[in-house]
Amino acid sequence: MRLDKWLKNSRLIKRRSIANEACDAGKVTVGGRVVKASYEVKPGDVLELKFGERLTRVRVLSVQEIVGKADAAEMYEEVR
Q1: 3 state DSSP class of 35
Q2: In whole angstroms, how far apart are CA 13 and each of 5, 6, 8?
Q3: Quick one: which of 45, 8, 9, 11 has its CA closest to 23?
Q4: N or C: which terminus of the chain carries fewer CB neighbours within 10 A?
Q5: For residues 22 and 8, what is the distance between their CA atoms, to the nearest angstrom?
Q6: Is 78 helix (H, G, I), strand (E, B) or coil?
């Protein structure tokens, strides 16, 4: 699944267009490497998202095309 779509489905970013812009701006990295919105997300990937001064680091647990709002948080775990 594309990174921008995964970010939207996991509810880490509200809209896919915003996720796409964040990737284009270099605010999303996978394993310390800046990636494009078309990057194929795999379980086990560690993503870092930079929003202003805040850094969020998550590990991908699952990749699902269709996910309900209640199950979205189960797609990742926060990593320190």
Answers
A1: coil
A2: 10, 9, 5
A3: 8
A4: C
A5: 12
A6: strand
Q: Is 50 exposed, middle or buried (0-12, 13-18, 19+ CB in 10 A)?
A: middle
Class of domain 3-78: alpha beta
Phi, psi (rounded to 5 degrees) for 70: -70, -25
Tokens linked to 21: 């812009």
Backbone angles phi and psi of 36, in degrees to 5: -85, 170
pLDDT reported for residue 80: 84
The closest alpha carbon to 20, from 3, 32, 33, 34, belongs to 3
Query: Does residue 72 surpass a pLDDT of 90?
Result: yes
pLDDT, tens only, 11-66: 999 999 999 999 999 999 998 899 999 999 999 999 999 988 999 999 999 999 89
